Amino acid sequence: MTNPTDERGGLNKGLTNYGDIEFSLFLRKAFIKGAGYTDDALQRKVVGIVNTGSGFNPCHGNAPQLIEAVKRGVMLAGGIPIDFPTISIHESFAYPTSMYLRNLMAMDVEEMVLAQPMDAVVLIGGCDKTVPAELMGAISANVPAIQLVTGSMLTGSNKGERVGACTDCRRFWASFRGDQIDAQEIAAVNNQLVASVGTCSVMGTASTMACIAEALGMSLPGAASPPAVTADRIRIAERSGAQAMKMIEQRLTPDRILTGRSIENALRVLLAIGGSTNAIIHLTAIAGRLGIAIDLERLDAMSRDTPVLVDLKPSGRYYMEDFHHAGGLVTVLRELRPLLHLDALTVTGRTLGEEIDAAGQGFAQDVVRPMARPIYREGGIAVLRGNIAPGGAIIKQSAATAALMEHEGRAVVFENMQDLAQRIDDEALDVAADDILVLKGIGPVGAPGMPEAGYIPIPKKLGRLGVKDMVRISDGRISGTAGGTIVVHVTPETAKGGPLGLVRSGDRIRLSVASRTLSLLVSPQELAARAAAAPAGATDPATRGYRKLFLTAVTQADQGCDFDFLRGLPTGESVPEKRG
Ligand code: FES
Predict the structure, then answer these.
(1) Which atom of ligand 1 is nearest to the CA of 126?
(2) How confident is the model at residue 578, as a pLDDT?
(3) Residue 215 parent element (H or E)
(4) Pocket-testing residue among 128, 129, 149, 154, ligand 1, by greatest number of atoms within 8 A of Cβ
(5) Pairwise CA distance, residues 219 & 224, whole Å
(6) Where is the Dihydroxy-acid/6-phosphogluconate dehydratase C-terminal domain (predicted)?
(7) Which of 147, 295, 360, 406 has the most neighbouring CB atoms within 10 Å?
């Protein structure tokens, strides 16, 4: 419900109505003057700044500097900036999993943007789930909003070798598990993996979402790539504050920027950067807030004609700071130009095509390849279907082992995380290098929160023999920083009665990435008999609180794991557009 004073903007917005709206304004100004504001300041347009700084979130460790710079930009443009907190989610400090909290943060952002008087908002986010949460909340609030990511961390060095979180975290830990490096070296590596504040230094979920925010038009051109501790990052922050003021004048709300065409641009970029599989879930949730569906079959078709161009780990060699030095995202956008919707609007009020043109010519570099010389001939992500994934499954083919992408093997099944922890390193475990590891019970409801546990560790006894990769299948997720032949997002999940729950150790499974199939080689009659004998996967009951809300309302991966009651009314639109 709005008040008659809302259209005046600034502090007049969203006044509590006691029956005398001018008294409400009088009261509000009296309180904020307690912080030393003048009447001159309080008559200006207000730009809110979402402050996600937290001692538990080193990925946002530069939030104070960013806020200071955003404030400078807002004030230079004649407005008044006011920062406010929301919850902050770091991947390693969010039990049971950060994904469990993404929707809570989205609700926090939406409600606080609407509850407090602001004419525009700068969304400071960075660590994996924070950017999608902020975009989801901003879409639902539909107040002019601009995304500002914290930027990537610097890389460190171990014995002269460059290292960075978290692709190298997994590589070194696998070497430690396989007795290839000792306790002293792994401790030394631990000091080097995260060399500064900022988000993971590879093309993991945070970097992917930073690129997606720019491709969507929701952040300034060039905003995705500057590392957290650089002057470039601080300048982007100042400019984001100033741009928020222009967006107020232009009434540039998220519903004008985010359309099916901008979502399609973001999907194209996701495939070309070899981005995180998590971004499919987040983009599905973002599109869902707009009432737009993502068609996985058409996404897969798009993947077949979108090569991976960015040579960053985990698909390639380099790190985010190299990507920035190579020109950042516009270097990719220039290559993708014929495949993009250039008329999509951005936060600048200009179109994506105009911004690509304004960036001028590129220069010689080796991090972003031309279309004619990609690092992988198809898009980074492939969509699989089959009798154990009727709602689809995902594999990051650009980071998989080529020899395993056409593979048939014997299933070695773990019923849940506890079962995995108890048996994976058991010397008596019946497992061989060409087996397929299956982990059940880690879907959106099952875990709950769909943890990034799809990166099932290689059993120690195989690791010691030098086995680096195996086909692994689960209804969970993997970190965007992880590599390997790993099938995730199997839908529906086992806790919702998905057929993955019917797989038994010893069954044969066939994976064919070329034909996009994932098949359990068990007869339909046998599967029907197993289904009749087995109840749907059990979930710990929740009687109260956020957990109850989560388990009641969370949707499956193919719906973006958003809460069903937060999704927009369906418009009937689905992306990518049908071609041919
Ligand atoms: Fe925050 Fe990787 S842990 S971006």
Answers:
(1) 4
(2) 82
(3) helix 205-216
(4) 128
(5) 8
(6) 366-561
(7) 147
C-beta of 98 in contact with ligand 1 (< 6 A): no
Instruction: Report yes or no on whether pTM surpasses 0.70.
Output: yes
Show the tokens assigned to 481.
Answer: 């920083």
Q: Give, as one character, the DSSP assignment of residue 445.
A: T
Ligand 1 touching residue 488 (CB < 6 A): no
* Predicted local confidence at residue 310, as pLDDT: 97
Contacts of 501 (CB under 8 A, 6+ apart): 440, 494, 534, 536, 537
Beta bridge partners of 389: 386
CB under 8 Å to 360, separation ≥6 — which residues? none
117 Cβ neighbours under 8 A, 6+ residues apart: 10, 11, 12, 13, 14, 15, 28, 46
Residue with tokens 């710079």: 69
Q: CA end-to-end span of the chain, whole Å?
A: 46
The CB of 90 under 6 Å from ligand 1? The reply is yes
Q: Which atom of ligand 1 is nearest to the CA of 92?
A: 3
Residue 438 Cα to ligand 1 middle (Å)? 26
**Please, what are the domains in the chain?**
44-154+196-358 (3.40.50.2300), 156-190 (no CATH), 384-533 (3.50.30.80)
What is the whole-number distance in angstroms between the Cα of residue 199 and the centre of ligand 1?
A: 5
Number of H helices and number of E strands within the chain?
A: 20, 16
Structure tokens at 4: 């008659």
| CA 396 – ligand 1 centroid, Å | 19
Pair 107, 138: CB distance under 8 Å? no
Pocket flag, ligand 1, residue 89 (CB < 6 Å): no
Alpha-helical runs (H) found in 305-409? 320-325, 329-336, 352-358
Residue 59: CB within 6 Å of ligand 1? yes
User: Shortest CA distance to 542 belongs to which of 500, 497, 495?
Assistant: 495
CA-nearest of 549, 537, 540, 435 to 492 is 537
**Cα 409 to averaged position of ligand 1 atoms, centre (Å):** 34
Mean pLDDT by 10 residues, the chain (580 residues): 79 90 94 97 97 98 98 98 98 96 98 98 98 98 98 97 93 92 96 97 97 98 98 98 98 98 98 96 98 96 96 94 98 98 98 98 97 95 96 95 98 97 97 98 94 95 95 96 94 95 98 98 96 72 91 96 97 89
Which residue's alpha carbon is nearest to atom 3 within ligand 1? 91
**CA 233–ligand 1 middle distance (angstroms):** 17
Distance CA 429, CA 427 (A): 6
Q: Are 383 and 297 in contact (CB under 8 A)?
A: yes
Choose which residue among 60, 90, 130 to substitute to test ligand 1 binding: the one with the highest number of ligand atoms within 8 A of its C-beta: 90
**Measured in angstroms, how far is the CA atom of residue 228 from the centroid of ligand 1?**
12
Shortest-distance Cα residue to atom 2 of ligand 1:
200
| Helix ranges, 388-494 (H) | 417-423, 460-463
Residue written as tokens 């809570």? 104
Contact 270, 283 (CB under 8 A): yes
Token pair of 197, please?
């504040």
